[in-house]
Design a protein that fits this description.
- 35% of the residues lie in helices and 28% in strands.
- With 319 residues, the protein is of the alpha/beta class.
- The chain folds into two domains: 211 residues, 3-Layer(aba) Sandwich (Rossmann fold); 63 residues, 2-Layer Sandwich (Alpha-Beta Plaits), CATH 3.30.70.790.
- The strands form three sheets. The chain has a six-stranded mixed β-sheet with strand order 6-7-8-3-9-10, with helices on both faces.
- Helix 3 runs parallel beside helix 5 and helix 4 runs antiparallel to helix 5.
């Protein structure tokens, strides 16, 4: 990876007890990069974001943005930063427009053009009181607030929570535009498609520990295809599974008459191997980011599961 490191965590640790918090977390995000932070709820994504925002002090380790300490120099950092929290804390009795105007004045924005463009893009009606807004509408208010000053760094925690697929797509487009502008973006999410579509690299976090970092280009390039085969009967399926077991091929049953397997010997060998069976259907799919994530998470493949682990993470991948 080339480019200046803008966001940097080194040995970041905050232990809340009972396995909660983050532990010895190290990663870097470079200028003009979208870095995905992927994990289940409670994995440590929000704790990491709060450290980067300077809301909490680490027990050990450090977090820096622009080379500045995120806790002691947070006021300086936040002037160049856009933040969308996972849980919006806004004055419930203010209208969305009043809140956005307040935040624009706070950021010393004289020009409201960008704010208005974002409201139109995400079909936001900011006039109602915030307490009357749906989860998705509140999220749009937060999104406009985070992006309207064109910040150098964006910290986005579960940014499309409450969005429908159309708005999710528009969000991804916006993120890619900001990346092309040169913004550095850390995007925390448990939505695999969102991360896959928008991120240059993705980190997997489990129980507060960084499990692995992958370049999305490498993930796409190394993806294998799983083939789903439907047979004419359960007996025919069982006969095929027995053949696979004898040959060492890894296949598992999907339903009464179907199996899934990787074509490790090539598609030609797979087709020839099916010639002696009564096949009624054959489809293929790519390995998903979710499968990769589940494998890292330790909840992944059994011996019969066709998912296999990707190459291990190196220090260069992380930093």
């Amino acid at each position: 990876m080339t480019g200046k490191r803008v966001i940097m965590a080194q040995g970041l640790t905050k232990d809340y007890g009972q396995g909660r918090g983050v532990f010895d977390l190290s990663f870097a995000v470079r200028q003009g990069e979208v870095f995905g932070f992927l994990g289940s709820n409670g994995a440590g994504k929000t704790v990491t974001m709060r450290h980067l925002m300077g809301f909490i002090r680490p027990q050990s380790g450090s977090a820096h943005i622009f080379g500045l300490d995120c806790f002691s120099e947070r006021a300086v950092i936040q002037r160049r930063l856009g933040h969308l929290p996972g849980e919006m804390a806004t004055p419930e009795d203010m209208s969305g427009l009043a809140f956005l105007e307040f935040m624009a004045r706070l950021r010393k924005l004289d020009d409201r053009t960008r704010m208005n463009e974002l409201m139109e893009r995400f079909e936001l009606d900011p006039r109602p009181k915030i307490r009357k807004m749906s989860k998705g509408t509140k999220q749009k208010v937060g999104l406009v607030c985070a992006f309207m000053s064109r910040p150098d760094v964006l910290l986005l925690d579960e940014p499309t929570s409450g969005f429908d697929p159309l708005m999710q797509g528009r969000f991804v487009e916006l993120v890619l535009e900001e990346r092309d502008r040169g913004a550095t973006i850390l995007l925390s999410s448990h939505m695999f498609e969102e991360v896959e579509r928008s991120c240059d690299r993705v980190a997997f976090i489990r129980a507060g520990h960084l499990v692995g970092v992958e370049r999305m280009a490498d993930v796409r390039a190394s993806r294998r295809h799983a083939f789903r085969v439907s047979f004419s009967s359960k007996e025919e399926r069982e006969r095929y599974l027995q053949t696979c077991a004898r040959s060492g091929a890894r296949a598992h049953a999907l339903d009464e008459c179907g199996v899934e397997l990787w074509a490790d010997g090539g598609v030609d060998a797979l087709i020839k191997g099916l010639a002696n069976f009564h096949v009624v259907g054959l489809t293929s799919r790519e390995q998903t980011l979710e499968e990769l994530f589940l494998h890292f998470y330790g909840d992944g493949p059994s011996e019969d599961d066709p998912v296999e682990k990707q190459p291990s993470t190196t220090r260069e991948d992380i930093l």
